[in-house]
Structures are given as C-alpha cells and as structure tokens.
Design brief:
Layout lengths: L5 H19 L5 H20 L7 H16 L18 E3 L7 E4 L4 E5 L3 H5 L6
C-alpha cells in the first residue's frame, strides 16, 4: 500500500471537517455530501498548482460548500449565537489562511473552528 501524499491528506482532512459540520447541522444528505465531493475535486487541482496552500484547503472547501448550499437550498450554517433578529449565516475566516473558523460578524465572535460546529450548536440543526 502506497503512503498517502500530503496533498491527499489535506484534502481528506478538509472533507472530514466539513462533513462533521454538515452532520452537526443535520444537513448531511447525499446531495449535500456530493457538494463536498465536488469541492474536493476542484481543490485537488488547486492544491496541485499551489502545494503550499494545503493549510488553507479546509476553509476553502467549507466556503465552497456554503456557497453551493446558498445557491441551491439557503443559508448555512445559521448563527447559533444570535437569538433575535433575522436568521443569518456564519462566515469562514480567514478567507484564505490556516485555522479556519466560523464567525458571526453581527455579534463579532468566533463561534467554532471548521469541523467543530457541533460543539457550538449543541448538535442542534443549523439550517
């Protein structure tokens, strides 16, 4: 068995983190998981062009999935911090950087690292 390349390790880790957040939000249906897979395929090419971007791929996959969900289903993940007012989605920060996390710009707080959204929502649906 061949060892897994660092590029593939980064892609597998990004997939796992985003899937964990989708599961926490109870939106990990087959068609949504397909969106993750589409992003991973696109980001594989991106990483082949820029291998130094491996630390950034989890945030990029999260953003890709968030954008695809917005186009097809609506905002995700909804902010678990703000109880009043219009529901709004969290954003991934940094947009291109290591240690991506979900933030609420309305409250000005970091909610959770990408992959740990379930700890912030208590397993409640965020869609």
């Amino acid at each position: 068995m061949d060892p897994i390349s660092p590029l593939e390790q980064a892609l597998h880790a990004a997939r796992a983190l985003v899937l964990a957040d989708l599961v926490a939000g109870q939106v990990a249906e087959a068609d949504v998981v397909s969106l993750v897979e589409e992003s991973v395929v696109e980001r594989r090419w991106w990483l082949e062009q820029w291998p130094d971007g491996a630390d950034y791929v989890a945030g990029l996959v999260a953003q890709d999935v968030q954008d695809a969900l917005l186009e097809r289903y609506g905002r995700w993940p909804l902010c678990p911090v703000c109880g009043a007012g219009d529901p709004h989605a969290l954003d991934v920060e940094p947009e291109l950087g290591p240690d991506p996390h979900w933030v609420c710009h309305k409250a000005g707080v970091k909610v959770a690292s990408v992959g740990t959204l379930g700890s912030a929502t208590g397993g409640k649906s965020s869609s």
